[in-house]
């Protein structure tokens, strides 16, 4: 674990990317900061952005897991961020096979 | 099991007059017992019979018990930011819009008004964000999941017997 001081220098999106890649072995990972869409949002007052993100993640680890479990895996990987001001994620979580089938 | 559930549902929400309107549950003072409000907008038939039939007047309920009662007594329970008619977050708004496609009564708590319930719900479901939706006591997930289930037909299946039991009792 790196110290909080060093972490604070990186944007949350980059920290999220690092964590999701290493924990979930993501083959595709798109993270979009949509905090501006939620500015002034009742629960966000007082925090400084980086609260709402869209995450699209493809990982072989999702195989055989239902949506609730997949989302839990993402939340678990990002537990530190959720503790430190990350409010909400919109998650699209697929396996490589599911992505291939839809093409 | 299905029969048991539908009996509970019939007992709990029997004759609930307007299936599409949501009832709002709010409790402010746990020490003095829970205050329950059910509001059915534009409906003169609102009656205390239609309020959630839980034992929340008891003084000894913990917050976790309250959540357990909520999800047991209300076939569709959503913990959200704001209230169904005035959501205060896009994700909560989306979840309500999806649920309103189905002819089912929706019960809601506004977690922005109730930080203690908010934490209790998080602990209960081990889920860090809101909204959170429970159907027949089962944790369903948040807005992404409810939208996906709406699109792939799973939600219709899950809500089928709730919708039909409401129709029958009307």
Automatic annotation (TrEMBL), chain A:
Gene3D superfamilies referenced in this protein's UniProt entry, alphabetically: BolA-like
BP term (GO), one: iron-sulfur cluster assembly
InterPro entries: BolA (IPR002634), BolA-like_sf (IPR036065)
Keyword Metal-binding: no
One cellular component term from this protein's GO annotations in UniProt: chloroplast
Pfam family, one: BolA
Location in the cell: Plastid, Chloroplast
UniProt keyword list: Chloroplast, Plastid, Transit peptide
Superkingdom: Eukaryota
Family: Belongs to the BolA/IbaG family.
Name of the protein described by the UniProt record: Uncharacterized protein
Species the sequence originates in: Dipteronia sinensis
Automatic annotation (TrEMBL), chain B:
Pfam families: Glutaredoxin
Database matches in SUPFAM superfamilies: Thioredoxin-like
Record GO terms (molecular function): 2 iron, 2 sulfur cluster binding; metal ion binding
Keyword Translocase carried by entry: no
Keywords, ordered alphabetically: 2Fe-2S, Iron, Iron-sulfur, Metal-binding, Redox-active center
Gene Ontology cellular-component terms listed: mitochondrial matrix
Gene3D superfamilies: Glutaredoxin (3.40.30.10)
InterPro entries hit by this protein: Glutaredoxin (IPR002109), GRX_PICOT-like (IPR033658), Monothiol_GRX-rel (IPR004480), Thioredoxin-like_sf (IPR036249)
Source superkingdom: Eukaryota
Glutaredoxin domain residues: 76-140
Similarity section: Belongs to the glutaredoxin family. CGFS subfamily.
Protein name per its UniProtKB record: Glutaredoxin domain-containing protein
Organism from which the protein derives: Dipteronia sinensis
